[in-house]
Design brief:
2 copies of one chain form a homodimer. The first copy, chain A, has 374 residues and is α/β, with parallel strands linked by helices. The first copy, chain A, is built from 16 helices and 7 strands.
Chain lengths: 374, 374
């Protein structure tokens, strides 16, 4: 996801925040009506994990009129990806299949470096390649996917310069909450992010859709304003809620226990899930008698978002927990097994992706020496 | 010249300003001792048109030890070049011959666009190619000269990003006198300019010398600070005074009468010089009797800087003016003739330069349709 300098997964915890976006800032809820426009609806849409949008209807109109469309879904390469990232890109892959769209994936090594999330640009480069392999492993179309490292194509800088004249320091400071001792790379990155999003429109005349976490709407609004001033189609957005990390905190690479990373082995996965926050009772006896509270349970949340392909399965699980039929150990084992299995298969595909890496990149790439693929 | 957003030729008019740089900011005067280190000394050095430096001695040490050295001399392509620009590049060409050095010439289309000096990047591109032809026409070495348009090689952006983490908004605002409604392109350009200067050192390990107008020393200091933090050799600088425009004001493309441009025809040249500010007496009779004041005269200043190759010729001219032997019409005719002749020959070479343009550029170039070469 286009992740602009926000601490990883700084969630809008309260329901009211999710609603506020719609009420105050004019995003629109995803309605059943809108979902009818897809041939096969993705579970994350049915579940309203993706729950709001800007101009998704307009974007679908363009698509229905036969225009080629693009999706822009970036990644800030400061670490190995975790299960939350994989699920987002799996959703993007579904969108690609559904709309036969192009997918642009900017890997923003510049962002992670200027925000001090990587030691240097080389480190960000290493993660960029690793992350790209994870993304390719999800099955994106070779022909219709364009991956690039932000500093490696001159078009991005040129377009950022073009955009920068329309962004004052004041606006950027307000939008991103900067202070004056911020480095100038951070300041300029506002223009670079807009360039990532607007590239397919400027280069190919294609409407753009950005799947993005909801707290990033301010950057989306800023980019849409810029598009208007450049007399371009405004990019559409589809907004997701946050998924909590295993400990109940936001998922973050700096707190490994909060999530499952693509490099985690079976024992890591079992341990992390075993220690996860649940909504269970203190004892099995009480659980059987009183039932659990799936609303509080991260294990249930993860099963619902990451594992169940059908909303009905999630509903059945919910009821079984509530009734005391399920106990926490069962749910944890189920989640651990599914993720171990998924990641084993994923890593197999990731190893295969090495061979076709250069078919996805729009500039030359080299595999760094210390790439970590287990 | 690396010209950072300063109104064209915003001269330090007073002698005291020239001295202040040396006293307050620690630049050093160019001494006779230092000039002895060149095989053939350029008149602009003897005249102390280039009058101060930072680490030129250290740079010459590197050269004498057999290290390959570079000169970085940029150009902001917002208009056709004028005679002042040509003379600066002619000096750079002399330095190239003298030191057998590489010359890097960044054409900062980004700078001119973000500072609002060109309508769009395409306009800056057009001037960049025109200016490059003027520069090539001066006879730079094909093998040892690297011209590039700032937004057209990804290395410049990548290096700017690397530098940007060491430059806070506060520092840049103070150095360049920005206010908070400045666009973010201007803010970031501080890092881009440093990238232009440091590229040969980072890419090739070569010491760099920058010939630059004296009022740009603050940017030079900033770049030298950045070099220190990146543990690189600090770039050396050699500082010139300003040459006044024909009207006595600074030369500027927005005031065509202040200078002679490469596109000016003989009639333009004669007219502009005929109207130039001189130090002459109101009548020929008074001139013969009292003599002129060459210190005030722009025509004399131009002859001295642009025409005379020998300091002794300039001195003879000075005396002849003082004594009343010369009258203004003679000097104006002489200057006009020399410049008409020089520019005619220059334009011939410029037309020839079209054929070898791509041998100087380090990226692909195309000749724009509306290139203006007379």
């Amino acid at each position: 996801m286009i992740a602009f300098g926000v601490p990883n997964g700084q969630a809008l915890e309260k329901k009211s925040d999710y609603i506020r976006l719609i009420k105050e800032f004019g995003a629109k809820p995803i309605t059943d009506e809108l979902l009818k426009r897809f041939k096969h609806v993705h579970p994350l849409l049915i579940l309203r994990h993706f729950y709001a949008h800007r101009d998704l209807d307009v974007y679908l109109d363009y698509h229905d009129e036969g225009l080629e469309v693009s999706i822009v879904s970036g990644r800030g390469p400061s670490n190995y990806m975790h299960i939350g990232h994989l699920m987002l890109f799996r959703f993007v892959k579904w969108l690609q299949d559904e709309l036969n769209s192009y997918v642009y994936i900017p890997l923003s090594n510049d962002e992670k470096y200027v925000f001090g999330k990587t030691r240097d640009l080389d480190e960000a480069y290493k993660y960029a390649i690793d992350n790209a392999l994870d993304i390719i492993a999800l099955g994106f179309s070779e022909k219709r996917t364009r991956i690039f490292i932000s500093t490696r194509i001159s078009e991005i800088y040129e377009l950022s310069v073009r955009i920068s004249r329309y962004l004052t320091y004041n606006t950027v400071r307000a939008t991103f909450g900067l202070n004056d001792s911020t480095n100038v790379g951070v300041v300029f990155y506002a223009a670079v992010q807009a360039a990532h999003i607007l590239l397919p429109t400027i280069k190919e005349g294609q409407p753009v859709l950005v799947p993005i976490a909801i707290d990033q709407d301010p950057y989306m609004r800023l980019t849409r304003d810029v598009a208007e001033r450049l007399e371009l189609m405004k990019p559409a957005a589809i907004y997701s809620k946050y998924v909590r990390g295993l400990t109940g905190e936001p998922m973050s690479a700096s707190k490994p226990e909060t999530s499952i990373f693509t490099v985690d082995g079976p024992e890591d996965i079992k341990r992390k899930i075993w220690n996860a926050l649940t909504g269970g009772q203190p004892t099995v006896r009480e659980q059987r008698k009183l039932g659990g509270e799936p609303e509080k349970c991260v294990v249930y949340e993860w099963l619902r978002i990451f594992v169940y392909k059908d909303v009905k399965d999630a509903r059945r699980h919910y009821d079984a927990c509530r009734s005391g039929e399920l106990i926490c150990g069962q749910c944890k084992r189920m989640l651990a097994e599914k993720l171990i299995q998924f990641l084993e298969e994923h890593r197999r595909r990731k190893r295969e992706a090495i061979k076709k890496l250069d078919r996805y990149f729009i500039h030359e790439v080299r595999i760094p020496d210390e790439l970590h693929i287990t």
